[in-house]
Write a structure and sequence with these properties.
alpha+beta; Recoverin, domain 1; six-stranded antiparallel beta sheet; 2 domains; Chitinase A, domain 3
Length: 240
């Protein structure tokens, strides 16, 4: 029983790959090294094709957000054409939950993600995103049922609330790994194929059946026994 529970915990952690923030991850002391620091600051900023400006700066910044971190942000999204607000992460947000995502793996809007590179915790930045950079995204940024308009020039006012380690970048796209027949859906049998190929849990039998079913049940929102790309909560990206 203990062996099976250990597998389930490890397997679920790999699938979930949720960013975790701790004070130890954030509070990294950086000594003043003069010109070398200035070069690092320039390298850490958004690429030249991204239009941005700081609305609120932070003095004595100890660590800047990089493409290898996870970010937690509050943001207001506006249409550039008329300034109308299409999303405000603080509106109606009783718990003050911010939006978190790993950098560099396509889980947020590409132009927004590139625009927040180099931010310090507590800094507020205005980022202009051209229509061709309003792509990618999961959850609130989802192309189909998220809240971000597509095909329009957008303005984001972003406050960096937290940064931490990125446990997703570098992981394989597990949806593609499991999807043996490449039909965009994961079945119980496909998960069994993966577990049996791994060989850790022995030959085909009740244990492998149960483990595969538990992975399905964890994400199967409509209870049809199949996991779609949108339902699957594990790593399912290609790195940018």
């Amino acid at each position: 029983m203990e062996y099976r529970q250990l597998f389930i915990v490890g397997f679920m952690l790999m699938c979930l790959a949720i960013p975790v923030f701790t004070d130890d991850d954030v509070e990294i002391e950086v000594e003043d090294e003069g010109d070398d620091d200035k070069k690092d600051d320039v390298a850490a900023m958004p690429p030249p094709e991204i239009e941005w400006e700081n609305i609120k700066e932070v003095e004595n910044c100890k660590k800047r957000l990089s493409n290898d971190d996870s970010a937690g942000i509050h943001f207001v999204g506006k249409l550039e054409s008329d300034g109308s607000v299409f999303y405000d992460s603080r509106e109606g947000n009783v718990k003050d939950d911010w939006t978190s995502f790993p950098m560099g793996v396509g889980e947020s809007i590409k132009g927004l993600e590139l625009g927040i590179i180099g931010m310090c915790k507590g800094e507020i930045r205005r980022i202009v995103v051209e229509p061709d950079m309003v792509k990618n995204g999961r959850n609130v940024f989802d192309p189909e049922d998220g809240v971000i308009p597509r095909g329009k020039k957008l303005i984001f006012e972003v406050e960096l609330m937290e940064m931490g380690p990125n446990y997703v970048k570098g992981l394989p796209n597990m949806f593609k790994v499991y999807d043996v027949n490449a039909n965009g859906q994961l079945s119980h049998d496909e998960l069994k194929v993966y577990l049996l190929k791994d060989g850790t849990f022995g030959p085909d039998g009740p244990l492998v059946d149960k483990l595969a079913q538990e992975v399905i049940d964890k994400d199967d929102r409509n209870k049809d026994g199949i996991l779609t790309w949108k339902e699957f909560s594990g790593p399912k990206h290609d790195e940018l």
